[in-house]
Amino acid sequence: MFLSDVVSLGQPTVGEEELRAIADVFASGWLSGAGPTCQKFEQRFAEVTGVTDALATNNCGAALHLGLTVLGAQAGDEVIVGDYTFPATGHSVAWTGATPVFADIRPDIWSVDPAAVEAAITPRTVGILAVDVFGQPADYDELRAIADRHGLWLMEDAACSAGASYKGRPAGSLADIATFSFHGRKGITAGEGGALTTNKSDLAAHARKLHTYGIAPALSRENSTDLPIPTFDELGFNYRLSDVAAGIMLAQLDRLTTLVAARQAVAAQYGELLGDLDGVTTPVALEDRVHPWQSYVVTLDPDVDRGRVATYLKANGIQCNFGTYASHIQPVYGFSGHLPVSADLFLRHLAIPMHANLSEDEVDRVAATLRAAIGS
Ligand SMILES: *Cc1c(COP(=O)(O)O)cnc(C)c1O
Description:
It contains eleven helices and 13 strands. By secondary structure, the protein is α/β, with parallel strands linked by helices. The strands form three sheets. The protein has a seven-stranded mixed β-sheet, sandwiched between helices. A three-stranded antiparallel β-sheet has the order 7-6-11, with no helix packed on it.
């Protein structure tokens, strides 16, 4: 089988526009991070996400760490985290010294169950870190009400959510701070990259300082006529996105609407082709939110052998994967609770190809092969 016969699980959409954007950055002479191209990207990303401030970072984990740090998370604190996610979410809490307290998820859209959040609150709880699972926003009205009632802050792990919205409000604007990923497996990408978005300019300014070792970015000194000498008064990091990557992201932002529409069309086609297949439940997009479909994940009935289905798909040129992780069972966290919904879906989810370059024929082929795999 030729590689081109394989239907890949995920694929970036990049081409001439991105190459031109890279050439523009080369011509500007500013390739390092937090430069003029990053600034331009940040302005446009703030518009897209409906916030006052966006900060470009080198990945989503860095943005999560910055967000938690400027919100004050520290040793002795507990942060309630949606369990079903790539473990960058839990890791970022642990990096601050705080304890991630994982909470179980909704069985339909897999984001954190607000009732489970409420039940996990203790006197040490300082905040809630919800995850928009595969890009579909969590229940921010309910989560905000809980946060307000208990004096907690609210963060949105929007790693997969570029282009998503909740009740008409864009992902990125749904919590005190949100964080995005531009890793190659996300809906828009620069290979690696991330962003933090917020409407709180004091938090944005602090995050900006910490993302460049604890001083103002060099761009702010670029046009000075005297000799400004920064002082380091706080231990920051290098979490900058390079301007080369920011150039790619500008081109990706131009594509965002088209890319999300293409993924939605794939999801609709899968829904039609697989909706009646015994043994398989197709994923739900709720009416009050826009789902950008970072991944398309079906739930297999408990009696379907997922390993066998995966082997069949791969043998027939269809890439697939599990869904994402049940965080609470990962040994790194030493978490003692049991979260049955997340633990169960971790065993039954199957991600099938989802990206903006899939043709209708390819989607047909994936669906027919999955049908054959289940029936075989
Ligand atoms: C991909 C992902 C991350 C990590 O993003 P990086 O940019 O690789 O750090 C974090 N959270 C979720 C929900 C993700 O899907």
